[in-house]
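Duplicate of #3305? Posting structure anyway:
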């Protein structure tokens, strides 16, 4: 039991040390700039995709309603 407890304590101390080291890490300026540029590019792509997606969804809806109407007539 003592071996288990000592292993748990040692693992906890190692984990806390690892977490503290990772929390202190700061990305280099070039990486921060690259992530900011990617965010701007993704925002621009989203601005272009949403109108197209809306047209496609509305088109599927119109086609479904047209098929439903054609079945009732025929």
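Output from current build:
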């Amino acid at each position: 039991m003592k071996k288990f407890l000592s292993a748990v304590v040692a693992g906890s101390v190692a984990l806390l040390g690892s977490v503290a080291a990772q929390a202190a890490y700061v990305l280099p300026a070039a990486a921060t700039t690259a992530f900011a540029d990617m965010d701007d590019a993704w925002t621009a792509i989203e601005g272009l995709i949403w109108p197209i997606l809306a047209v496609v969804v509305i088109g599927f809806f119109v086609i479904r309603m047209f098929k439903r109407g054609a079945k009732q007539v025929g």
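Confirmed duplicate; merging threads. Helices lie at 2-24, 29-73. DSSP finds two helices and no strands in the chain.
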